[in-house]
Amino acid sequence: VCTYESMLAGQHRLKRLGISRLTNTVGLAFAMNQIPDEAITLAAASHIERELQITSWNLSSNFIACIAQA
């Protein structure tokens, strides 16, 4: 239950920040390489990348186990 609630809280936090499309770290790295080399754009993209990397499902393998049981 705690893992699932942590995942929901992480999703809610990302939505509050305006991040609505979630991806895995492989897709994230690909997207970061496609961004134009402009300072403001790269800074914003780096912030989004950090926010996605600290979500519970990227920090814990328990997320996958939790979703598999739900």
From TrEMBL:
<feature type="domain" description="Transcription initiation factor TFIID subunit 1 histone acetyltransferase">
    <location>
        <begin position="1"/>
        <end position="68"/>
    </location>
</feature>
<dbReference type="Pfam" id="PF12157">
    <property type="entry name" value="DUF3591"/>
</dbReference>
<dbReference type="InterPro" id="IPR022591">
    <property type="entry name" value="TAF1_HAT_dom"/>
</dbReference>
<dbReference type="InterPro" id="IPR040240">
    <property type="entry name" value="TAF1"/>
</dbReference>
<keyword id="KW-0539">Nucleus</keyword>
<protein>
    <recommendedName>
        <fullName>Transcription initiation factor TFIID subunit 1 histone acetyltransferase domain-containing protein</fullName>
    </recommendedName>
</protein>
<dbReference type="GO" id="GO:0005669">
    <property type="term" value="C:transcription factor TFIID complex"/>
</dbReference>
<dbReference type="GO" id="GO:0017025">
    <property type="term" value="F:TBP-class protein binding"/>
</dbReference>
<dbReference type="GO" id="GO:0016251">
    <property type="term" value="F:RNA polymerase II general transcription initiation factor activity"/>
</dbReference>
<dbReference type="GO" id="GO:0004402">
    <property type="term" value="F:histone acetyltransferase activity"/>
</dbReference>
<dbReference type="GO" id="GO:0051123">
    <property type="term" value="P:RNA polymerase II preinitiation complex assembly"/>
</dbReference>
